[in-house]
Amino acid sequence: MQTGKVHVALVASPGMGHLIPVLELGKRLVSHHGFSVTIFVVTMDASLSRSQLLKVSEITDDFLEVVLLPAVDISARVDKTIGILRQMAMMVHEALPSLQSAILAMEVQPIALIVDMFATEAFVVAEEFMMLKYVFVTTNAWFLALTVHGPNLDKEVDRDDHINNQKPIHIPGCEPVRFVDCYEQFLRRNKVYFRMGTEISTADGILVNTFYDLEPRTLAALHDTRKVGLAPKAPVYPIGPLVRPIEQSLRGEVLSWLDMQPKESVLYVSFGSGGTLSAKQTIELALGLENSQQRFIWVVRPPVENDSAATVFKSNGVYNDFRDYLPEGFLNRTCKNGLVVPKWAPQTEILSHPSIGGFLSHCGWNSSLESIVNGVPMIVWPLYAEQKMNATVLAEHIGVATRSKLLAPQGVVGRDAIAAMIRKIMVDKEGEAIRAKVKMLKSCAVKALSNGGTSYNALATVAEECTIGMQ
Ligand code: UDP
């Protein structure tokens, strides 16, 4: 790209949850800061074509180039004992020679490399080409705080205290992380995770997909120049919320159905790009939705097979249709009030629809931000990874969500508890404060991203550093 513009390169590690915010960051650097951007995508899926990528993010700018690095195949070296973090690190590692060659072949070498938090292995390439190196944390600041604090804690605190005695983890200046919420890789003392924490701290800057009004306490702690025991040494830039924009042209059965529903009357239920429930839990959720007497859209996936209740419905554990695992008569009884969608739905378009009044979510961070920017209150139902921390941020630190005390996978949340949570966020007086808070944060998010807003300014500082680096 020979443009006379400041050129930066971004690296997205495998997974749509990482790619979506990285693409949005690239688009913002182009449209708001006049940069030219190349996004390198590490993928293990050779069939993930460029046209599919364009579809997810409607890239139309001449100054934004998306380069799919040759697909890496680690399947021969991976068995069930190798966790997802290690797999991710292996894939990024394998992709480094291609990244190196691609940068070397560029007419204008990028001034900076911005990698998502699972791709810090690529910092060696930035160092080789003497580029500025930034990390983009695509989740929240509290998780960043735990991640960068982890390596310190590993040395200082007796393992028994927080793992065996279930004591909370105290991160200086931040809310403590309860044992039940803690990221599972932290509890397993995963070396890859702790190394990630150390590497993040070596960056020239850390960009986070959050904004001031969302996490004021944690961001203040991360900004504390005295750094009382809390790494990182690098400055932290809250630049969010960056979410995938709606595709205006996208219509279809779900959105047409929503057009016919009253304002804020529909609950949207989804567990992200891959979350599943047990067979028992699926039934309780169905009956909870029915008992709540609220309208709903439910993105349904077949229950996990190793659940004993699965055999009640289908002895071989294979489901051909959702009639095989939803309670008998459920679809007929709820067809006037609800829509059951198999596997995938146009989420950002649904959440921005005026008929949506609530979101029952696994609280992946992209989904959480998509809910907030649309002013939609949530029921948080975390399943894995850092989702339990996200749930606590949303329900307890910010107050835009409610949650069940009986969290999966510890037990099955019953239909009555589910119906009560749904009524709370959708209609009951008890949920008024939650509904008001999320609407307030919706306008704070707009302000943060507008010219002169906190997130706008934070990214402008990074852009300025890159511009100075060019001179
Ligand atoms: N998504 C979607 N339709 C679905 C499920 C998910 O469009 O049926 C999108 C959603 O809008 C979000 C992303 O996929 O942008 C999921 O990311 P998140 O961080 O919420 O969770 P993950 O799937 O990575 O656990």
Descriptive report:
- The chain is of the alpha/beta class and 471 residues long.
- It is 42% helix and 13% strand.
- The strands form two sheets. It has a seven-stranded parallel sheet. Strands 10-9-8-11-12-13 form a six-stranded parallel sheet, with helices on both faces.
- Helix 5 packs across helix 8 and helix 11 crosses helix 17.
- About 2% of the residues have low confidence.
- The structure holds uridine-5'-diphosphate.
- The site of uridine-5'-diphosphate (UDP) has 18 residues, from helix 1, helix 14 and helix 15.
Low-confidence region ranges: 307-316
Q: What would you report as the Rg, rounded to the nearest angstrom?
A: 22 Å
Q: Which bin fits the share of residues in helices? A: 40-55%
- How would a crystallographer describe the biggest sheet? 7 strands, parallel
Question: What amount of the residues lies in strands?
Answer: 5-15%
How far apart are the termini? 18 Å
- Using the alpha-carbon principal axes, give the shape: globular
Mean model confidence by pLDDT: 87
| Number of DSSP E strands | 13
> Strand sequence of the main sheet, in spatial order?
3-2-1-4-5-6-7
Supply the number of helical segments: 19
Structural class: alpha/beta
Bound ligands: uridine-5'-diphosphate
